[in-house]
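[Meeting: bench + compute handoff]

Bench side (C.D.) handed over the final construct sequence. Compute side (W.E.) agreed to return the predicted structure before the next meeting so the bench team could plan truncations. Sequence as handed over:
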Amino acid sequence: MFNSGLVSSAGEPIVFGLALTYGGLAQLLAGMWEFRTGNTFGAVAFTSYGAFWLSFWAFVQFFEKSVPKADAGHAVGLFLIAWGIFTAYMFIASLRTTAAVSLVFILLAVTFFLLGIGNAGAHPNIVKAGGWVGLATAVAAWYASFAAVTNSTFGRTVMPVRPLNR
């Protein structure tokens, strides 16, 4: 919501608590549990995105002030583009899961690339576009996670996710 310009960036500090705990620690733990169950895709995804949020939180909290202002956008942009590359190949792997999960990964890859390019080149309109695609990513992720929990809890398909060919 901050990147899209829907809300003021003054509220960003609340995001960093979530980045540390839910985005970082909770996903890292989920990734370790996925390794235990033998789900390589889930393990790599959760562990990696947990590490993303932990590293982004650490950057903002401890290191951002050490980066010259003129270079901060370039640094953050390259960081986000690297995550876009990772997410793009995770999208390819997601093509063996469900359409709901694949949609999340393609939207997330586009989000990372737009935010990365926008930050690296100081293009606020590209960052704003990335923010809007990020909101679409959030909606898709909420649906996919709600469907997974609901379908598992009910023991049948209540919310379709369209399994892809295996």
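W.E. noted at the follow-up: The mean pLDDT is 96. C.D. will use this when planning the next construct.
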